[in-house]
Amino acid sequence: MSAIAARPLNRTLLLACTPFLGMLVWLFVANISVQLSERAYPQPAAQTSPDPGAAAGPALEGLDQAKAIAQGTGQSIKKQLSLYQKTNADMAQIASIASTQASRPYQIYDRRITRKLGSPAATIQSDKLEAQLFYLGTQNFQSYALKIKLKQKDAMKLVLGNDKEGSAETTLSAVNRYKAAIGVNAGGFADGGGKRYPLSTTVVGGKYIGGFQPTEKDLFFVGLNGSNKLIGGKFSSQSQLDALGPKFGASFVPILLKNGQRTVIPDKWKTSPKRAPRTVIANYKDDQLLFLIANGYNENGSSGATLEEMQILLQRYGALDGYNLDGGGSTSLVFNGRVINSPSDGTLRKLPTHFLFFR
Prior knowledge:
Elements: H1 3-30, H2 52-117, E1 122-125, E2 129-136, E3 143-150, E4 156-160, H3 171-178, E5 182-185, E6 189-192, E7 195-198, E8 203-204, E9 207-208, E10 220-225, E11 230-233, H4 238-242, E12 246-252, E13 255-258, E14 261-262, H5 267-270, E15 278-283, E16 289-294, H6 307-316, E17 321-325, E18 333-335, E19 338-339, E20 353-357
Antiparallel strand pairs: 1-2, 2-3, 3-16, 4-20, 5-18, 5-20, 6-7, 8-9, 10-11, 10-12, 13-14, 13-17, 15-16, 15-17, 18-19
InterPro entries: NAGPA (IPR018711)
Protein name: Phosphodiester glycosidase family protein
Pfam families: NAGPA
């Protein structure tokens, strides 16, 4: 492009910019300042520090409310606990009164039967049993009564002589060996081959020694079940006896009392012998046991008690069921480690079975 052609263009541009240039000169000469308000600039967000009092107020109010609720709950729990304890105490008192009232008939009954026996000469009292020994004032013979209340299942048991079938030992020996408090001779026996065996059905620890033998003629079985209740009678089958749950027991002849009534004594046993040392086991309606022991100087029938006299004593002392155990020289009564009766053999006889009682 030539210089001649460029000049018109420059002049045109100069004319276009002239107004603006004039405005700038005027502003400079007039010294006019332009100020913007504070709102024209962005402001930083206000930083406010928290007021501790204002923040703590609601929190403290919440804590106070929680504390009040806790205190109210605690008081309610205390009241409930106090009521619970009082209720328990009242129930315990009611139970005690009920137990006392329930036992009153038995206490009265026990006092009545004890009064018939007289004043006990000796007593053994323990957690397992209460045993009372009485000296009886019988006319034709010297006799004793042993009344026992069993409190625990392991308070009484039957043991074999030296714990072996066919072996024998005295009741005192068995008492000492087992550290028992009391010992009484048990069932009859039969000798054979230099050994002494229990007569007929015998149960030790729930097991039959030598097997079950049906009762014949006048024989009977007598013992205790798992509830310490006296069981006895004649059994033709093992299932009959098993139904009573025998824990231990032995056999002899004859039965003397059933339900408080005398049984008929076979003629054979009335005179074989007529009088002899006797051992009888019986029970009361509250399941206490009664043993009657009669002394005799020999076994020829001239001393001791008759079976009819033992029946009279059983009824006199209020017994329910009564069974004649082995007597004569076998009669043995050991109380607190001392032999109480007078053995007709002069010394205690060795026997295959013994009833033992434990403190």
